[in-house]
Structures are given as C-alpha cells and as structure tokens.
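User: Teach me something about this protein's shape.
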Amino acid sequence: MFALDAGAYDDPLISPNYDAFERFETMRRRYFSLLLTAFAALALFAGRADNCNPTPEPVCETDGDCLGQCSASAIAADDLQFSFTDLEILSGSNATANDVNNHGVTVGWSTSSDGKVAVMWDKDGNAMSLGKASGAIISEAEAINDAGKIVGFSEYANQYYQAFAYADGAREDLGYAEDFDSTLAVGVSASGDVFGSAITLGSGSGAAAVRFGDEIESLGDLGGDYSRAWGASGGGIPVGYARTASSVLTATRFDGESPTALEFPDGNFASTLALDANDNGAIVGYGVYSTYLSPRTALQWINGAVQVLSAVNSGQSEARGVNASGWVVGESFTGHLATLWIDGEAHDLNDMTVDLPPGVELFAANGVNDNGSIVGIYTVSGQNGLGAFRLDPVTACVCLPDGGENGEGECVAP
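Assistant: First, the predicted structure itself:
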C-alpha cells in the first residue's frame, strides 16, 4: 500500500449539498531528475541513428545515415519504451501533472511556499507558478493547448471556485454565471475556446456545462437540469456527463445544437462519465456500477460505440486521456498502476519506462499528447507525497540494408 500524504488527494469541492458522484470525480482529478541514459544506449544500439533529426518521415541517405525520427505510433505496442522526467515541485512534497501539449509543456499543480498553486512545467521539467485569484487559497491548472493557453480554477476559503485562463504571461479570472456561485475551467480547444462548468455549492445544488467567453454560455443537458464538462478535444468538442430526465448520470458529448448521450455499456453500470476526446471519433472515461464509491471500469467510445477497457491486473480502472492516434491513458486501481491502452489492450507504464528511478512507482496517467508523451503522478516507496512525471517515447529511425520499402528506413525498438 502506498504511503500518501493525507492532504494529497483533498477534494476541492466538498460541500454538504454537493453530489457524491461529483465529489469523487473532482477528487480524482487532483524525486528524481536523472540524465536519460536510454538515449546513449539507443545510439549504441542503433549505430547510424545518432545523426537523426526530427522530420516527419524517416529517410535513409545513400551513405547509410538516417534523417528523421519515427513516430511513436509506428512502433508496435510491445516494443514501446519511455524515458522518465521528474517534474519539479516548487516546495513541499506534492505535485500532480494533468495535461501536456504537443510541445511537451505540462500543467497541473504543486505545493509551494504560497500553498497549492497551478503550475506550468517546461520541456526540461522546470516549474513556474501561475498564481491564483486574489483571496484564493489554492489554484490548479487542468488543460493546455499548443498555443500555450492554460485553463484551471482557484479555490477560496469558503470553498467556492472561479475559473481562470492563462495566456501570454497573464492570468484572467473568468467570473461567474448567473444563478451559480462557482465556475471551473477544464478544457481548451486549439483555437482557444474554454470549456468547463458552472456549479452551485451554496443553498441548493446544480451544475451546467458551459463555454466561457464574453458571456458564459450553457451547453445544455439531457433533460435532468444538470450537466458537467470535464474535458475537450483540440477541435473544440467538450465532453462530460449530464443527468437524464430519469436521473441517470450519462456520459455526454456537448457539440452541435444539443448534447448527445453516449451509448450506455451492457452490464450493471449505474452511471457513465466522459473525461477526454480526440477529433477522430474517440471519447474516453469510465462507468460505475452503483454509488460513487462502487467499482468502476474504463470505457472508450469509438464513433459512438462503447467499449469496456480491462485493467492491467483485472479489477477497477479509469481512462482519463486520449490522443490523436487513439492511445488511451489512465489508471488500473489494483496496485495503482499508470496504464496505457493501445487498440484496447492495457499496458503497465512502469514496465515500459527504461530509466525509472529506484522506488518510483507510476501511480496514474492523466494526459497524453499526439507525440505520445504521457503525464501523471507517481509515488516513492516508503515516502509520503505525490510527484508529477512526464514520459517521452524513446524512438529512433534506423537504416537497415533492406529496411522498409525502397530502403527508406525502419522504425525499431531501442
């Protein structure tokens, strides 16, 4: 059993009137910088591959040198390997990485001298605080696009929340929607559209999936007067869940003129929730069998059809992110293993990481970019606290005498 700091998974939205399923999901979304010797080993293995430069496709020159670097998605799942980057903690002993863009810039939160704050990590893993709203006690960054726009929320001492967006070196607090006392931003499209939820935590309870702009616009619901957006694709397709007229919480896509309920899986599922989407028809999330504390199973929807994703060691699982190639990341609960699903098959990321420091256990994967970089949280055996990580695929273009068609090079494992 992992030794976790008691405050590491504090629920930022606990309220006596707050829906239990909602509380659990918000809770869920909450040391070592080593030289990556794997690349040196790769150069020895690949021989002529050390002259590679990032280009779209590998091409072999006549002298055998290799120009190009293979896409990680071109390597067979069983041959994939990753390198580990420890993401800086500003101070204290806790951090969580929630999302990573295609430039390798990661966002999440870290403990600091000013409490828990939203942070951005550069490609080298260095952390920069994004601050928090005036009067707020904590902040957290949830998503980032390729232009560097970051979204998240700040929390106040009275347990109310306000969404923010950060761009061009400045944070903008996004305000509140009429009839709601809190807002959270959780997704941002490639063009900068911001999505999230407006919620009521005071007297009564309620929530609406929203788009932030000059005005905060409701994205609708499924007839139950309750909806939440938990993520969005780069093309601006927000996903989450909504309550139906019969009070069933159902994974939902909030695009077009009205929300679309996603196919419910067979079995004894009581509720489903969507957390992320790509622009190629894939949506990921999970289903629960009874109450919010009951067992849960990772799900993905491909062009509307639902598929159950098995965990690494059977048992419970959650799918939390998906990239353009259809790689799905999340957690297998038995053993708390950061998990990568490719073509529906679960892989333990601990077994795929070539330079994992001693004692480090990759606990959960929260996001994946289109280059195959994966971010999440890790623990250290025998220590308290949570660390944030980024994994990068170890890929190479190797020119074999007869590699590929016309000798243009071949993607191989290191």
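Now, about its shape. DSSP finds three helices and 32 strands in the chain. Residues 20-30+90-342 form a domain with the Neuraminidase fold (CATH 2.120.10.30). If you'd like, I can walk through any region in more detail.
User: That's plenty for now, thanks!
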